[in-house]
Amino acid sequence: MNAGPPRRVLLVSAFDASYIAEDAAILATRYDVRRATGHGVVALVHALTGVLATDIVYCWFLSVYGAAAVLLAGLLGRRSVIVLGGVDVADDRATGYGLWISPWKSSLARRALRSADLVLVVSETLREDAIRLAGYDGGNIRHLPTGYDPQRWTPAGGDRTPGVLCVAAVSDLPRLGVKGIDVLVEAARRMPEVPVTVIGVDVRFVASLRPPPNVTFLPAVARDELRGHYSKAKVYCQPSRREGLPNALCEAMLCGCIPVATDAGGSRHAVGETGYIAPAGDAPALVEALRLALAAPPARGEQAHLRIAGLFPLERRKSELPALLDRLFSTT
Asked: How does residue 97 score in pLDDT terms, banded at 50, 70 and 90?
C-alpha cells in the first residue's frame, strides 16, 4: 500500500453478527474502518453519505442498502466489495424468502453484483447462485470462507449427553422454514427417546411447531455461552433448506460434536466424512442420519474438530482478506 494515512473502508451491513465483527477487526488492522449498520431510511442515508467519505465500500450480504452503496461507489469512482453469505442469493418464492423474488430489488441486486469490483462467497455453491441470478460470467467472484479459531472453539470437557443440539437464529416465519426447524421437530417426533435442544428460535413460533416432549427450545444466548452447549451435546444438527457456510455447524464441529446436516450450501463440504448428510426437507432421512451419528464412536467428534481447524482457519481469512483489498487499492 502507498505510504500516508490508512485507506478508508466503509463496512455496510443490515445487522451485526460475530462474523461481520471479525471482518471489521481484521480490516481495522490495516485500514480506517467505519461502520454503517441498520435498517430503514436512516440506515440507507447513513450508508450512502458514508460512501462519499470512503475509498472502498465493503458490504456484508447483498441487501438493498448494500446494493445502493455499491452502485453509488461505482459512480464516484470508489472500489466495492460484496460478501455473499447465502440469504442474499435466495429466491424461494414458495416461502417469500430472499430479495430476488422482488422485481425491483432483484434488478438492483443484479446491477450491484455485476458492477462490484470483487464479490466474495463463503461457499462455492453461492458462486453458482450468483451467476445464475445475475446472469453474468461471475468474473469478479472469489471464494474465501469464513474462518474459525480452533483455540476458542474447542471442547470444554466433561461428559456428553446422547442428544441432539441445533442453534438457529430465527426471528420470522420464512427463516424458520429456511433453517429447517420444522423438519427437525418432525424428526424428533419419530425418535421420542432422543432429547433434542434448539437454541435461538423466537418463542412466538414455538407453539406453531407443536413440538413433542423430547424437544426443548431455549432462547438465544451470548456467543461465548455456546461453547458450553456444544461441548455437552454428542450430535449437532444443521437441518437447513438453504445455507452458505453455517457458522454454528463449524463451531460445533470444532467443539467435538458429531455433525448431521442437510445437503444445502457449504454444509456437505464442512461435514465431509466426519458426519452424516440427509436431503433437505426429508424428515425420515434426517432421523436415519441422526441415529447413525448418535451410535458413532466419540472419535468422530475429534475428526470433526480437526476437519474444521484444517479447512477454515481464522488465520487464512486474516491473511487473504486484506491482501484482496490491497489489490483493489493498487488499481486505483
From this structure: confident
